[in-house]
Specification:
This protein is of the alpha/beta class and about 675 residues long. It is built from 26 helices and 19 strands. The chain is globular.
């Protein structure tokens, strides 16, 4: 038997869909099941017509964002303005009708309708006239942004309260019904429903401006409000996530990995950022504070004071935070040692540094060279004979902290979402998405890694990481669960982790050794070959994509625009979209992040200037200044039939045609009415 095959990649799973050749018979039981959904010839024909029509629509707009790092306000604004799409469309539609100030006002109203309406009420002299003009403009604009979608899809996406009215207005052609159209708007105003209607229209526009959101990792750490970003993603229409190393360490903590819990708290305290921990997830740091203040009562822990732009901490608070920071840092390095000893095949022995310390001299010897340690007070909880063993007090503390992470309902909910909507990589619409890298050798070939009882590279390696990471959260037997939890930590900091992508995490050296040569973290050779088209082509082939028209899209390493680095590499085959969302990176990058837009006409890289505040955006109508660089423009518009969803719909049409034939030749009997 001969079959034609095509493949669809979705959520990291490759589905092979069979297209029937003429003369072959589809499985009878499958047709009977299909007939339950389409019980008559009429219903089959209607669905075929509908699906064929959908295939001819333009593909929806995809929005790619990476390395958000807890910067909720900037991220929220980028979503609301769709990386400048909304402003750009407004300018085109109302080019000759509106001034720049009017355009900015309407854009801000769409981004922040509730807050902007409150200001309008205070400052507008003729509110009725303003309502009439604004409602007409919003309806026209809503019709423009929804034109890619079927009327059925649009109607399903509309707010229920105004679904019928919005549907009537955006699909109404004036002509003889102009009075009908105007009377609807007049009645909305007269019945004092204009504000609610404007809010509904604005939110509808935001939904239709972008069809699909891709988050390429690192939602957590650095910035203070990662939990609010996760809340926003929970309710997004269509979203997928490619895990970053700052995500997996939180996922590991939520799974109950003590070393991941320690890492999360160490990073939070190092940067004086615990809003996500305490307010976001309700995890109390009081047990850590009590332990640290008691244990390090005679130690000022000055070198552990938080690196933070937050000047609101009092001297007493800074002192307490420093003690907490030292306490969790020491515990963290101990727990790392436990894990490394537990996983001897993971090539991490070079990170067993506590055993290289001379505790009487307070020095450490690395590669035959002795270095003094910056922490002059030493380590009162470390037993030099068994440096990786936690004291009874440390173990009791970690049990409490781990339990707090596991018992946080909101964190568990967010972590479930990260697993259900996330993966190590994603192939979608001829693009390969991942956070960090594909591990390579120094010659640019795929690196073979032996961590799972077999030698793996490329796609198979990332599939294995994905599989075992999930076991860390979902497995029921202790051995598999512990392996998965340890792997989540390895993905955070291991040499062959595709989402860490460096030879080591030199945290210990940066803490304790005043020698910058030892602080260097060497990137995987992938970063040396990002400009090499042949290497990029080989990676794309490894993931089943055609190098002729496919792209690699990733984040992780900020693009140093100040130094002349470009985000588009290898003649446009690879794009890096980490441009510095996090304020901590902006002094290096020179901008505040890249995003990528992929619509039916091609791809555009958008660079963004730093965001001020939401309040400033609403009061002064300041948008993020964004610059668009067209990476790829298609002379022929991309249609849904050209996308992965189009392949799925084409397969369904093929199946329905088989069912239609079965009805007509009597193999399947129509359901009687």
């Amino acid at each position: 038997m001969f079959f034609n095959f095509f493949s669809v990649n979705f959520k990291n799973k490759k589905l092979f869909l069979q297209v029937k050749m003429k003369g072959e018979t589809m499985n009878y039981e499958y047709l009977r099941l299909l007939a339950q959904s389409y019980p008559s010839i009429d219903s089959v024909c209607t669905e075929i017509i509908n699906l064929k029509a959908i295939l001819s629509l333009p593909k929806g707009t995809e929005h790619f964002v990476s390395d958000i790092h807890g910067e909720y306000e900037a991220f929220d604004h980028i979503l609301r303005n769709s990386s400048g799409i909304i402003r750009n469309k407004l300018e085109k539609l109302f080019d000759k009708e509106m001034t720049d100030k009017q355009t900015r006002e309407l854009a801000t109203l769409i981004y922040y309708p509730k807050r902007k309406l409150a200001l309008i009420h205070k400052n507008c002299e003729n509110l009725t006239e303003w309502y009439e003009i604004t409602l007409h403009r919003l309806i026209r604009f809503c019709a423009i942004v929804s034109e890619k979608y079927t009327r059925s899809k649009v109607k399903k996406s509309l707010p229920k309260e105004f679904s019928y009215i919005i549907d009537e207005l955006i699909y109404e052609h004036k002509g003889d019904k102009e009075n009908y159209y105007d009377n609807i708007i007049s009645e909305i105003i007269a019945l004092e429903r204009a504000d609610a209607f404007i809010i509904a229209l604005a939110e509808t526009i935001q939904v239709f401006a972008v069809d699909y959101l891709h988050i390429l990792g690192d939602i957590f750490d650095r910035g203070p409000l990662a939990h609010k970003i996760m809340d926003k993603l929970l309710y997004h229409n269509k979203v997928d996530i490619q895990w970053g190393n700052h995500d997996v360490v939180w996922m590991g903590a939520a799974a109950g990995s003590d070393v991941c819990v320690a890492e999360v708290l160490r990073v939070s305290l190092r940067y004086g950022n615990f809003l996500t921990v305490e307010q976001g997830y309700g995890i109390s740091l009081r047990p850590l504070a009590v332990f640290a203040i008691r244990t390090y009562a005679e130690d000022d822990c000055a070198m552990y004071r938080p690196k933070s732009e937050n000047d609101s901490f009092s001297e007493r608070e800074k002192s307490e935070l420093a003690k907490m920071h030292k306490a969790i840092a020491v515990i963290c390095f101990k727990l790392q040692g436990e894990l490394i000893s537990r996983r001897p095949k993971w090539n991490l022995k070079n990170r067993l540094l506590l055993s290289k310390i001379n505790y009487s001299k307070n020095t450490i010897t690395l590669d035959g060279v002795e270095y003094p340690l910056k922490d002059k007070k030493g380590f009162c909880t470390i037993d030099p004979k068994n440096p990786y063993k936690l004291t009874d007090g440390e173990r009791e503390l970690m049990d409490k902290l781990k339990n707090a992470f596991v018992q946080s309902g909101k964190l568990q909910h967010h972590t479930h979402f990260l697993f259900s909507h996330g993966s190590m990589y994603l192939c979608i619409n001829d693009n390969l998405l991942f956070h960090g890298c594909i591990p390579l050798n120094s010659d640019g070939t795929l690196k073979i890694v032996e961590m799972f009882g077999k030698k793996l590279k490329g796609r198979a390696l990332l599939d294995a990481f994905d599989k075992y990471a999930r076991q860390g959260f979902f497995a029921t037997d202790k051995k598999s669960k512990l392996f998965g939890q340890d792997l989540l930590w390895y993905l955070w900091a291991g040499e062959d982790s595709p989402i860490f992508a460096k030879n080591k995490m030199a945290t210990f050296e940066r803490y304790y050794i005043d020698n910058k040569n030892l602080h260097v973290e060497t990137k995987n050779p992938y970063y040396d070959y990002r400009e090499n088209e042949e290497v990029c082509d080989n990676i794309l082939r490894e993931f089943g994509l055609n190098p002729e028209y496919s792209h690699i899209i990733n984040g992780h390493i900020p693009v140093k625009v100040k130094k002349g680095e470009k985000p588009s590499k290898a003649n446009g085959k690879l794009m890096v979209i980490d441009g510095g969302f996090s304020k901590a990176y902006q002094s290096v990058t020179g901008i505040a992040g890249y995003t990528l837009i992929f619509n039916s006409w091609g791809m555009s890289l958008i660079s963004h200037e730093p965001f001020t505040t939401t309040e400033d955006a609403v009061l002064h109508e300041t948008d993020i200044i964004s610059t668009r660089d067209i990476v790829e423009f298609n002379q022929k518009r991309i249609l849904i039939k050209d996308t992965d969803i189009g392949l799925v719909l084409s397969k369904k049409i093929s199946d329905l045609r088989e069912l239609l034939s079965a009805y007509r030749d009597g193999t399947i009997i129509e359901e009687r009415k």
